Amino acid sequence: MAVYFDHRLDTECSGINTDVSWFSGNPMLAVTSYSDETGGAVNLFLDEGERLLNVKLQRSCQVTSSAWHPTKKIIAVGFENGELLIWNATDCELFEGLPLHKHAITVLHWSSNGSRLISGDKSGVVMVWKSDGKGRLQQNPLHQHHCQEPLSQIIFKPLPPPDPSTDIAQLAKAAVSGDESALDMFNWKKGKGGSKTVSTYGPQESLSFFIGGASGGVYFVSEGGQCSQAFKADGPILKLLYYEEKNILITVTEGLSLFQHAVMPEGDTKEMMKVKLSGRGDKPVIDWAGKGILATSTGEGVIRMWELENEENYILHLDGHSGYDPNENITCLAFCERKGTLAGGTNMGNVALWKYSPPLGNKKVDGEQKWKLQTPATVEGPVAQVSWGSTKDLLAVNTIANVFMLNEHVMSANFRDQTAVVQFGPSSLSIEVFSNGTHHDLKTDIQNMSVLCLNLIDALAVWNGRRVILYEYSEDKSTIKASGSFTTDSMIICIYEQNVYSIEMQKVQVRTFQGTVKQSINFSEVEGQPVCLDVCGTYLLIGTDIGILKVFDLSRREAKPHSHPKNLHELVPGFGSLLACKVNCNGTKVSAAIKMQSGNQTDPKLYFWDIETDSLSYFNFETGKGEQDDYPPEQMVGMQKDSAIEMSDADRGKDQAAKDIAGRFPITHHWDAHDPKLVVCEARILPRTDNKEEKKQKATLTKQIEEGPVEVMVVSLFCTPENGILIQDSFPLSDDYNCLLGIEVPYHYFVRKNETSEDENANQESGHLVRPDTATVIYPKLVSRTTMRDFVGLEKSDKQTREAMLNFSYYLTIGNMDEAFKAIKLIKSESVWENMAKMCVKSRRLDVASVCLGNMGHARGAKALREALKEPELDAKVATLAMQLGLFEDAERLLRNCKRYDLLNEFYQNAGQWGKAMETAEMYDRIHLRTTYYSYAKHLEANGEMTEAIPNFEKSDTHRFEVPRMLFDEPDALEQYILKHKDKSLHKWWAQYMESLGEMDTALQFYEMARDYLSLVRVYCYCGNMDKASEICNETGDKAGCYHLARQLENQDHIKEAIHFFQRAEAFGNAIRLCKEHNYEDQMMNLALMGRPEDMMEAARYYEDKPGQQDKAVMLYHKAGNFSRALDLSFRAKQFGALQMISGDLDERADPELLQRCADFFLENGQFDKAVDLLGIGKKYWEALKICMDQHVEVTEDLAEKLTPTKEELGGDTMERVKILEAIAEVCMHQGQYHLATKKFTQAGNKMKAMKALLKSGDTEKIIFFAGVSRQKEIYVMAANYLQSLDWRKDPEVMKNIIGFYTKGRALDALASFYDACAQVEIDEYQNYDKALGALGEAFKCLGKAKMTDESLQEERLGQLKNKITLIKKFVTARRVYDEDSEEAIKQCQVLLEEPDLDSAVRMGDVYGFIIEHYARKERWKAAYNAMEEMKGRISGVNMTYYVNMRTIQAVHQALDIPLSNTINTNKMNGYRAAGHEEEDGDIVEEEVPMYNDDL
């Protein structure tokens, strides 16, 4: 609990205070005042209210503006006469600016770093001054502008967000981590002339600003000094604000018009929005109240809020607290961002405070629910101005006559031995003695105090860090008086008996009540400075800042060490500092809360030191488990998977209890004064950056899905020696309580919030409460105690019963059921057993609960629990127990937790919470939604709420029966209901009811409304109005009505009309019957064709017996699907046209003899295709194939499928099926349908014949595909042989397939021949001997691996290949060495020409051509000509141009002056005309042959 203490400042008594402003650093407040005698002045005050003397900021005229330097204690002050003063409070120096302003200075503002000061006056003159480190201004301003209107507001344009690439802080971090590019950004190299150059990292201070005037003009002054009007508003400027997150300038006029302008990088603005704010008043105040939240006060009793992000508007009221008057108005406001507190001063001297506390878990709430109204602070006089400031977040309140400085102070409170002391004012204490119900209010002489009470000697200590006062009670507790005091600067004090223990410097002093030092407990520097003291029982605990814990025994005359000290710093990783430590009542255990070194956050673990075993354990509030169960998350997942099946109910209960409190950290903790095992903690939820986990959290015993996580929980723990730290109980801290004060079985003690409820407001008088029953005036209690869950109903029990219950709870927690029951075996009270059963709800121990219910005699509960054991979910079983014990809230939460919404719906219904029941059914239990509405309707009907029951019967879809039943005794209301609702079934029911009463006209009316045409026809026929009945049937065509009318007409012998309406009713059988009986043959045929097959058969039998009508009988039999009867009748009646039509619809289901008979008929008439088709349907495959072969009937795809028997048809005779398939394929081959033949051969399993058929088709693509999927050697070879017959020289893909197929088919001799052919093609067409050599090498390899039957032939072919390879290799070698030694190359060629079988491997023309080209290149023309002549002699009929370039031939002949005709035929050279010596090159396709190398 916190309140605000105020200090009245010593300001000018004779004048008024016009303004207050805070320095941003250490607390220093500037108060501007004015009086007619002394003029205007600015006084400075420190945080304690001390006024600084010798501040020379006073002139005879009024102060019109002031501004603090952003970082230094320097203040600029402007006066009404235009004078500008600068006061340096650090150096106590005054600087006077040049008197350039001739009018009152209305605007003063420093830049963000304080290097510039902006001043503006009433005439519109604005000046920009440059300032040094002490605040002194340059002689002349940097810039000066005239805006032609009085200036009122100024705001600097913030710097743009820093570029990450040039952010100096990030660059420094990167440079330290070794990033060379970051190091390069720091350019420390000296430039020319020895000067150092440093890279610039963007502007560090914004020097451009906007300024607003009294005529509505808003001007922008750039950093360079250019001034331009940005825009003009429609009234005087009241406020300029900058929304940095969206880079928007917000302008508010005195007429409450708000403008939003987007600000461009160069200062240009673009209007985005203009709105008119609500409110009335002469002096509106507007300011930020958080990020993107505007708060406006217009002199009313409310503050209007506007969230710019989501455009949400709402109002903060003063309602809900008794400290405000209904006529109170808010005159000013200010917001503290660090505290999240909005302050509003009122005209009645109150300062209203709203705390911004949005709900946890991102729960959606209205805007006003995010702000909580606090207890007001009160000052003297109406508040004119409030202002937050300084590093201590102090609040300055200006009431014109006085100025108050408000400081928030956390109220002290303590509890010991049923005595609670709570501070409720600066020097006021409230004392509650619960042992005898005594209450005291104590007024002390000191403020800002801390308190500690100890009831063993009825003593109370109060101190404030300067002085300690001790009080003692009288014997009857009726009075309290001071018993001693002394001065000390200690802030931590404890008392025990007649001793006062205080921390002073590096030791703990033991003093008397008068301050005399009796003993000193010293600590060395290694042990640290003592920071914590605690006394419990007869033991004193001292904790130091570095984590040293020492326990002392106080039962003797002096404090003696109880054990060896414990060093937490050595045992706790990441130890930062000690926050709090406590000792239990028998000195066996010590608990400690610490702050971590990293992040300066509270450790979520509470540590326990067991002094007897000298061991340290902990309880982790983040996971909700003690050290014995606190495993890492990844290990925990594996354990849950492994032990999910074996986990007992008790273990699941412990696991769920851990989940209830997980995600928190301890803030306070207390040991019980008498039980050494029990400790209670106050745990707050951990701050989370990611809300996904919060969204996924389930409802538990302490929180529901809709409510989100509870902020503060109270957790009771048992500190056990064998089982570690275990949870005994947990519950959320009530909103009525401020904090946990302590524990003493059977109660928890809490400090109440210093707020009165709405019900108490009406009875409140002068700060007291009026008790309604006795009308006595009592003080409000600031302390409240609540019974522990295990002791509800046992508050007044004796000590033995309390100890038994506590032991039972302890043993139940650790799972020792024998000891638990032994602890309570002597207890006979039903209330005790009931309380233990309620404990079982929390611990989920159903076995214990059944024993408790038995001892209670709760038969109904025992039966319900036994029946609930069949439920699969543990929480569902426990919820049943909770219901029987009256723990309805726990039952509700348990059912939500296990998602048993069906049981939750039933629970709500039984509890009479129908709204929640229907909401649950609509959202989660829709399968029972209609049942829920029905049950609610029955409930309303039982309560006599008929009108409300009807809609619920309708929602349950039972209104057609239930509403008439419910309203049957009220016929008028029932008729009105039926008339109101357009429900056909209701109309029909009412019509039937009216008909039963004989009211035919009313019945007809409602039958017509229900569109029940059968009933209409029936009633009209009953009334004898056949014409009306006929009219209805003709208009509506209702089949049932038409049938009923037709039967009535038949009974009256109106046969034609009856036949007509039977036809309308589609009762064709009845119509045909009447036609047969009355010889209406002309209508029978049409009726039969429209009827069912049975009707057609009936009519066909009739026509069959009629001479000359057999064609109709055949048609009807055919239509009815009786093909055999139709065909038989067609043969007998020789209806050949009908026979052909019927045969087209025959399938395999037809009679085989009938199919044979039809086939014979078609054969006789030369229709062989139809005959084959029928034979195929009749499974006469060989006959059909013979006809196809003899009569050349084309075998189509469909026919081939009909002639193909299935594998099951021939009784498993696969050979017969194969023969039929091959016969079909042979017929297809005969007809040239090779693809179909291939398919059938493949189905028969004869892939060789299939391949032959496919080869005949010539479909290369399918041949390649079929060979690839067949995977047979012979087929591979056949495919390769076929591909060789194609033009494989121009298609590399074909060549690749040939080689691949020969390889896969192991036909290496054929592959060798193909390589030989490839080599010859390379020589003949491309003269590429290198590739030819590679191909011959592959041929030689393949032939060497081949296994030919004739080995001599294989050897002969290998010899030939080897000889060819040798000759080609010699020619290739000669060509290769030509560039190095041309003469040697020519000699090798000449030797090569002497080889006997040269032409079988190397064309002699190529060798001669090579030689001739060489001689021509060397200009040995004669030798070249001789080579030509030799070539002509050895190669008869040679075409010289085929081997030698034409230009070379011409050059040789020209050099020797020999006619060209002596060597070649000039009319035709190489097959081409040579006229004009033009060469026409054809297309040459040169492709590499795969799978052979260029070199051998």
Strand proportion, as a percent range, falls in 25-35%
Instruction: Classify the helix fraction into a percent range.
Output: 25-40%
Task: Count all strands and give the number.
Answer: 65
For the largest beta-sheet, the strand count, sense and barrel status come to: 5 strands, antiparallel
Radius of gyration: 56 Å
What does the overall shape look like?
A: extended
Distance between the termini: 100 Å
Output the number of helix runs: 50
Q: Unreliable runs, pLDDT <50, ≥5 residues? A: 188-200, 639-645, 690-706, 756-780, 1468-1496
Q: Decide which structural class fits the backbone.
A: alpha+beta
- Mean pLDDT over all positions: 80
Report on this model:
The model is unreliable at 188-200, 639-645, 690-706, 756-780 and 1468-1496 (pLDDT under 50). The strands form 16 sheets. Strands 26, 27, 28, 29 and 30 form a five-stranded antiparallel beta sheet that branches. With 1496 residues, this protein is an alpha+beta fold. Strand 58 (712-720) and strand 59 form a beta hairpin. It contains 50 helices and 65 strands. Helix 15 packs antiparallel against helix 16 (914-923).
